[in-house]
Amino acid sequence: MNFKLNMLFNYDISLVLLAIIIACMAFYVSFWLCKAGARKKHYCWPLFSGPTMGCGIWVLHYMVMQAHHHNHVINYNIQITLASLLIAIVGCTLGFVCFLFKKLRRKHYLLPALIFSATAASMHYLGLTAIINAGDWYVSNTNITLSLIVIFTTSLMMLRLTHLMLVMTGKNDSYANFYRLGATLTLCVGVAIMHFLGSCEINMGSMAVSSAASSQDAYIENSLAITIIVLVALVFMLAIFIWFINFKEHLSNELLKKELIMKNLQLKQMTQHDSLTKLPNRLYLQAHLNTQFNSQTEPLFIMFVDLDGFKRVNDVWGHAVGDELLVKISRSLKSVVGNEGFVARIGGDEFIIVISQKDKDTVIQLAQQLLATISDRYELSATTVDFLSASIGISVYPEHGKDVATLLKKADVAMYYIKDKGKNNVTFYDEVEMTLPC
Known about the structure:
Blueprint lengths: L1 H7 L4 H26 L10 H19 L10 H23 L1 H4 L4 H20 L11 H28 L4 H27 L11 H62 L9 H14 L4 E9 L1 H8 L1 H19 L3 E7 L2 E7 L3 H15 L3 E2 L4 E2 L3 E9 L6 H17 L5 E3 L10
Helix pairs in contact: 2-3, 2-8, 2-9, 3-4, 3-6, 3-9, 4-6, 6-7, 6-8, 7-8, 11-12, 12-13
């Protein structure tokens, strides 16, 4: 045990950390490619998941081996070394194909986990046999068993996290990213522990070499170094590409989200406001009154305003001129009521004004002011209108009712009552003089 712990400190830590960072980048990219394929937007991308992960495992193994402090440079058999790379790429590709194919994956991910763990273990131990100047080395059956258990267990955990990532993709991107990062770290830890368990008892023997052998060794080392550099560069380029795609997708999603919010606001505006005057409509009025009823402590006055003589404008000058007049009247009503009340148009030339007041006389004064304003002179595009007036009926919450329909109906009855009495006036609903229609 002490020997194993001593081996932990017999590495160039900076090179080990660099190897882990590069491997994590490769794993993260491979999981992202897997996600992109699962979303059925880019069918070819999962084909790169396996090679990317295989390159990450291979680079981690050989960089950590190079980080080990030895008396001399480790030399490899280049054919066996490249064979280990091929095993890593093909094995991880098969693992992803099996994982993405639901009939093979089943529920417990046993087959893909076996493929991933067998691939990592085969690549590792084949890579150890590629060492030319290893001297006498031996890995105990216990360490081999432990390394296989570790890589198989971490492969199961990695696949479970990857599956959760795929499930959460499109539902909650934050959780999907969390699971992708968890799968990355899990696999990296598993491969690192397997590497340590499988190589902690190797002793690089020192041996005299001829000049020809030294030249050959130098060639092998240069070939291995170039291979690692190329793979690392590919991983970095893929990582930058993935970052760019993620950033572009995130930006597109944000723009789409803002556009959707704007469309929803416009739709809400259209469904709850009058398209001509932009005043709240009957639907908005009902919701507004129900909200006020829940917290109302003072009497609430519902004014039903109907224009007198407006039909003449439509009949003589047309609906376009009538619409122009309605817009001007709605602005006049809003300016008179101000922040003290609520103005809505419920159809045609009918308006509802809601005022919260304790004193009825104040409400009557406001109603008289509204009548004077409506009776004003209007300069329109086709004519001048100076013959308008209005009839206003008022109901009171909670005196005349506690629901919107009853209050509007009683205000309507009061409005028609005053219209029959001569128009251009205001009155409150009276239970004795006025009767509701059946």
